[in-house]
Amino acid sequence: MSENDKDQPSRASRRALQDTLLDALHAMRSMEEIKELETASDQEPKDSDGLIDRLTNLTGSAIRFGVRATDTSMRVGRALINSQDQLRAMLTAGQSLKDIREVAGLTLSEMSEALDLRDKSVLEAIEDGTSTLSFELILRLAALIARNDPIPFIMRTTRNYNPEVWQILNDWGVGRLPLQFEREREFINIFRRHDDARNLSDEGFQKVLEFTRQSFEMSLHFVEEQEKQVAELKATYAENLSDPAAETTKLGKKPPGTRGSKPSAK
Question: Locate the HTH cro/C1-type domain: which residues (predicted)?
């Protein structure tokens, strides 16, 4: 047997083994490609679901932010309304305090010194309506400029600068502050409209003050009596309207001119 005949089976065996290995490699490559395609198909809906979830979370976050912003704006709005009301009350009280100080003839420095304040800037801010009064300072002011009648001044100032304390006092029945404030302001304006009163001597001013006090007390007495009589007449009229027969029974006689009445004996 020649050498060529011996090499032919070995060559055929090597070629068959090579073909088998190539087929196995192709099969493994095909399996890897199939797995990649399956993995990609599984990831596509997950990615879409993740995008939808992100969009949903973003929308929910925007809604929650909007709710918080709306609630905050409402709170800020209520605070601004309350602060504006408080500011108007402070401006009114500051103007009133300035009027009282000017009528009393005191400067800012003199009143600050009398109130034991370090400088007059505190009092200036109070009169301008940019600063508040503590309850202790309200009591000092009452002792200084309203010592004869401190209660109305304390009530009026407390309502403007200390709403919490005023609420307690209002629960006790102190609710006529605006009316009293307006009346006191009208009295001050009477004096401020007459420049000649500022040029009077001390004796002349005391005479005018005494005459004004007597006139006020006399007119107050007459007006009180008049209002008392009017109230009694209103009460009697209301009682007669509610029960007209009771008035006839109370008088104990029939109205004149009725049928069946006997002539009086002469």
Answer: 97-154
Q: Specify whether the CB–CB gap between 125 and 92 falls below 8 A.
A: no
Residue with structure tokens 């307690």? 168
pLDDT for position 136:
76
Residues, the chain? 266
Segment-wise mean pLDDT, segments of 10 residues, the chain, 266 residues: 54 67 65 66 50 53 50 44 63 77 82 81 81 75 73 70 67 61 79 85 91 92 92 88 61 51 49
pTM: 0.32
Looking at residue 222, what is its pLDDT?
A: 92
The whole-number pLDDT of residue 254 equals: 52
Q: What is the distance between the alpha carbons of residues 145 and 97, in angstroms, rounded to a whole number? A: 10
C-beta pairs of 179-184 under 8 Å, 24+ apart in sequence: 180/152, 180/155, 180/156, 181/96, 181/156, 184/96, 184/152
For the CA atoms of 247, 250, 251, 254, the dihedral, rounded to the nearest 10 degrees, stands at 70
CA-closest candidate to residue 219, choices 211, 230, 229: 211
Cα angle for residues 130, 134, 140 (degrees, 5° grid): 110
Residues sharing a CB contact under 8 Å with residue 99, sequence separation 6 or more, in sequence order: 185, 188, 192
| C-alpha closest to that of 90 among 45, 52, 64, 128 | 128
Burial 17-47 (b: 16+ CB within 10 A, else e): eeeeeeeeeeeeeeeeeeeeeeeeeeeeeee
Helix (H, G, I), strand (E, B) or coil at 115: coil
